[in-house]
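Fold this sequence, please.
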Amino acid sequence: MAARYVIGIDLGTTNSVLAYAPLDEPEAPVQVLPVPQLVVAGTVESRQTLPSFIYLGDEVEAAMGQYDLPWVRGAKDVVGHQARMQAAMRPERTVAAAKSWLCYSRVDRREPILPWGNEAEGPHISPVEASRRYLSHLAAAWDAAFPEAPLAQQRVVLTVPASFDASARDLTREAAEQAGLGENFVLLEEPQAALYAWLADAGEGWRKQLAVGDTLLVVDVGGGTTDLTLIRVEEADGELSLHRVAVGQHTLVGGDNMDLALAHAVGEQFKAQGHDLDVWQSVSLWHACRAAKEVLLSLDYVQSEPVTVLGRGSRLVAGTVSVNLARSTAEAVILDGFFPHCEADEKPARPRRSGFREIGLPYEPDVRITAHLAAFLAQHGREETREGGAMHVLFNGGVFKADALRRRVLEVLSRWYGDEAAPGPLGGGADLDDAVARGAAHYARTREHGGVRIRGGTARSYYVGIETAGLAVPGAPRPLKALCVVPFGMEEGSQVPVPSEPFGLVVGEPAHFRFFSSAVRKNDRPGELLSRWEEGELEETDPLVATLEADEAVGEEFVPVTFESRITELGVFELWCVSTESNRRWKLEFSVREDAESVTAS
């Protein structure tokens, strides 16, 4: 069946959105699909966004049909609006922030670990499974609305944070394939998708707002992460073009942190009323503050919003207790805590950590987004912003619905650059709720019909760990070198040979392969062998434990090989090991699987 639509999907930490446009109508506006979902038990309504929450129900609730949808009967789990409401009432059964867990390598993201911190009570699912369920709900909603054009047959673009490494992208791909998105969908970085949405709205007028040498700073603060991206305006064949030149480190600071800060402030209000909340009430308060924040930041006429938690004890009356969160309080907590004024040479603080800590998401200890922005620009801005070019700011993420937060970022940038060179916001920005999804759909259309494209390729350089030879020292591991196999900016759908001397590849028995990546070493070329690097320059990603099939032609367990690297159209990194003594090739497709597995040789 031929594709009839282009589809963009924003798989968000807090909300997910699906946007679409007819494939054969290049000028048709991109639309957002209203997604049917439960708003209360037994009541289905269509909303523009699908909250990225899952309530894990039970058999009794399923038998009563409370969670049925137009396309499923007897469901015992809920995705979307009602699940988000349940997060404040039943946090021990509600999955949230699954996307943030996809990039956390300290846990097995295929294991049922969510809801996190609730080991004893209720069911659990994995971060990959949670992501699959969000995408499955969107796919089912699409198929119900367009039965003649199944989603798996359309041109689909799925967005990921720019800072997602290869393993997180691979897990996202896996969840998408399991959800029925087909095999030909494409991954796109969220900041780029936001800019594509702006380009779609601006039309040809974008060329009047930007000039050669200008730089676009995309500040994307989502529910779980902060993504910072620099895109340069260049000239090619007499036409303006866009080139992504820098991406920030993966920074776990976002709306979730802000919700927690608001919960702390509101918790003090509860204490003032004589209510001492227990652990699960505090979790409920966190979720309740998320809902209140979204209302206060998006609706200018709302000056306060009630925050309610269930009562658990004789001190609470009528089963619930409530306080009002004022807009002024919310803005003050977020402005002063997350967007304070700071100096241009500021760096995020790295306080001494406790010797013991609970396992959990590695949230940034310094939540000052302005400090992270200062460090990012100090590292990339001076060398990437051409002299004489202007800097423009594109805001993305629901947090920036609040005018006060956008103004604060611009004020901070003005102090750093001076009034004359102060960066200004791009005019005519898209709706922050659906910009990423709409931009992804527009990108899908440019792939089919042409149009301005953002060049950039991979947002990181990738390296494979090479164990050095030499005398062994008792109790000490052998020194490790890092061989660059993928350069920064390598385009999807391309492959490169890695020039180097042969290295030994272990075959026929389980072997441990170590991979590294860097968002700051942008000049390393394939074949460059690093024996030393500065702290923070390289980040180790998930290792691969695999058993490669033995090469019968050579008959050895230690085969000399050279490397070839390939980035697929999906953005998946494949490392090919090529024997120098036979025609055998082994493919190490980047994976996060910890168990030993057989890898097919080609």
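Residues 255-338 form a domain with the Actin; Chain A, domain 4 fold (CATH 3.90.640.10). Residues 252 and 362 are 7 Å apart (CA to CA).
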